[in-house]
Design brief:
- The protein is an all-alpha fold and 168 residues long.
- It has one domain.
- The protein contains 4 helices and no strands.
Amino acid sequence: MISRLRHGLNTLFNIGGWMGACFVALIAVIIIIQVIGRELGYQVRGADDFTAWSVAASIFFALAYTLKKGGHIRVTLIIERLRGRSARAATLISLFVGTLVTGMLALSAIHLVADSYRFEEVAQGLLSVPLWIPQMGLLLGSLLLFLALLDSFLVALFTADGTDRQTR
């Protein structure tokens, strides 16, 4: 049961990583189209807006994947010097605080997207895109990161050495 749940979570995190990569590829496509368009005397309307939204989406979608693959820069200066219960406590506290802060970010993102949808907010750029659409990258990415941190915290809490081997 637990292994199937962890497998499902890891699948979600991998999908988030792929989504982040797709948005990076989209940025490259937009830039190529802009370069070609400029040479042909054509300006792509809204390209700057879509590039900015794609940058944000690529970052947020890839956060959980990067955490689980151990790719985040982690400040371990203190934890590496600790041993035994002290190291376990520091690891658990840092994962708990990270989970709490990310949970608040995800909750704020839910409210942001809901308000943008409810009040029919649109982008102020050249194209009137409903803001809730590009904000979904923030929402889904922060939810994925919250799940990844919660998973790491629970695994660290219930393992003997207090670490999630996936995030090392």
